[in-house]
Amino acid sequence: MTTSHWALPMPTFEPLDRDVQVDVVVVGGGVAGLTTAVLLAQAGRSVVLLERNELGSGETTRTSAQLTASLDTRYYELADLHGPERTALIARSHTEAIGQIERLVQEGGIECGFRRVPGYLFAPAGREAELERELEAMRAAGLDVRMTAPSPGTRNLGPCLRLEAQAAFHPARYLVGLARLAVGLGVRIHTRSFVTEYGEEGVTTERGPRVRSEQVVLATNVPVADRVRFAARLEPYRTYALTLELTGPVEEAHWWDTLDPYHYVRPDGDVLLVGGEDHVVGRADDADDRYDRLEAWARERFPVGARREAWSGQVENTPDGVAYLGRAGAGYVITGDNGNGLTYGTIGAMLVRDLITGRESAWAEVYDPERLPRGNRGAWLREGLNAMSHLREWLTPGEDLADLGPGEGVVVRRGLQKIAVYRDEAGTLHPRSAVCTHLGCVVHWNSSERSWDCPCHGSRFAPSGEVLHGPAPEPLAEVTDFQAEVDRP
Question: Where in this chain does the record put each Rieske domain (predicted)?
């Protein structure tokens, strides 16, 4: 697995080892879960937080850490989909989320380098009219934005939209501070506590202990124990990022372009973080090429030198460009980050806090998880059918095991079985069923992250079969007698 620029040791906690009862159980140890736990504890609720692995082991620390009201979906598109009033609410919610993060940093004395910075949105040559349209839509939504020349230190950008009062910070240090703040408020945190079932009376963990609660909040990237409800309404993407040494001064700011897939940029100390080159999970295995394209793109526009780090993360897109936040069935969900997970995770925490404590929220309707998609339903349906078309891989031949080198994986066929085989650095084979435990699609090998990725709904598994990313509820099944069959003359 690649290592993010933000990676650092996180505080450790013990697994849940007995049944407990609280007001609210929060599932997920990233920015959404920890913020929800803190806000509910501040509101007087007793809270337990459960995390499958360790705090910050999901997507929060694999982002670009840009806190912004500039969204992946253009504001003129949001206005067409949701209307001007709701679009203004969307813009205001992201602005207020940045303010909420700033308050928590101040209240908790969190040392995460939080600072306010401007953001610049620019278009490729020949598409300046798109910026004019977005400028009008952003202003109509209430954002502080103006057209300007590119900032000093950049080149080949052209006219830009400048947004004021965006923000930057170190996401892992922020999580450490949130965890400390949560514990100080009485939140009980348990890591290595995988939730396998949830309902109106609480949750059950893989090892057996339960948390009985009045409310359940699913603050994972994809809701746990979800077979179809949300997985079918989310499109998972891998997104790539790298850092390059800065060789000249650049403004402390954020940058984004309007390409599809788009690029995102920010400095951090002596490096420039550059991201983009997104693709649907499990449908490409060319990370090195994508990193090279990111680097080449950055070199044309910023003063950069040698590459330092490269990693990838995962985002979940929705058909209408905004997250699913709020009450859904037996609990509350925070999902569908659309590439803005830090602000959407915080918006979700604020909204869920308000719903649980009986406060009015102007955001509830626009983010309602039960809403009908307002996007291009035909395109979304085609994408869903395309995802399920990968079930045809049951009929295709497998790959050749003879060419499998150390640190590599292939899917082979043995009779009617598809088997995912990983060869470790010592040469030992690790066979698992290639069938995703979510809905039965055949997984693909991700050579950059050394993981098995499902092309249907984005589940990811370690070479040994453990679940790295939902919605898959269980590890890839074990395969017996495979080595003996390989060794047989």
Answer: 396-479
